[in-house]
């Protein structure tokens, strides 16, 4: 919904739309820039966005902190530009899916157009897409799904705070590889849990997984003992697979609010009662 302005230096047309050689050639005001160029060109485009008065950008481009020291320097160059008045999702991400706003930047041609009550925050772009697609036939619809990649500006904590304040979001589900500010993240999750469930799939807890997380989104994944303590102190619901995340989301969508600890298990199988008791205590 709304107007689209494709840009490419040589101009032309695309799907019936005029292609503009530069941001300055667009005659109208623009609210969101979606950037997909080689990483070394991103800072210059953000500068142009500021000159155009654009206040938000999604940077799909890779080649930043996930690639090593050179990429870290390139990502750091974006910081002073962002500080001058533009908010950024990314880089190295798939972007957003917001059905109520009629906007999908993630590759999501088969995503449902109906808005829902689940807010998804995920570092991985393909996982964001996979979770939405796998949820289609299971009764889950999303208020927003946000792939934020390296999180050089807006990160996991910002997005959880956003979804906490969103009245349409009833459940927050997360796929996280690393956290920028542990204390702030803990406080944000605690605040969210006062009003809605928070489910977290924390990846990168083995030594090999930590190395993979660094090369994927440039994240410092953290030690498993620290994360065990986080889950104990925060009360967030820990999940360990995509299926677990989706199943737990369905459960919370159907639980009455404030169920609390008053749970009775009825089972025709002793084994099921034992497993159920373990799940409830965890």
Describe this structure in words.
The protein is α/β, with parallel strands linked by helices and 282 residues long. The protein is built from ten helices and twelve strands. The protein has helices at 42-52, 69-76, 78-83, 125-135, 156-164, 182-193, 207-217, 224-234, 242-254, 270-281, and strands spanning 12-14, 17-19, 33-35, 56-59, 87-89, 95-98, 103-104, 118-122, 142-147, 171-176, 198-202, 237-239. The strands form three sheets. It has a seven-stranded mixed sheet with strand order 7-6-9-8-10-11-12, with helices on both faces. A hairpin with a 2-residue loop joins strand 1 and strand 2 (17-19). Helix 5 runs parallel beside helix 6. It is globular. The model has no long low-confidence stretch (mean pLDDT 91).
Kindly list the characteristics that best describe this protein:
globular, alpha/beta, single chain, 7-stranded mixed β-sheet, 10 helices
Q: Low-confidence parts, pLDDT < 50 over ≥5 residues? A: none
Structural class: alpha/beta
Give the helix level as a range of percent. 25-40%
Shape: globular
Biggest pleated sheet: 7 strands, mixed
Give the helices and strands as they follow along the chain: EEEHEHHEEEEHEHEHEHHEHH
Strand order of the largest sheet: 7-6-9-8-10-11-12
Please report the distance between the alpha carbons of the first and last residues.
44 Å
For the CA atoms, what is the radius of gyration?
20 Å
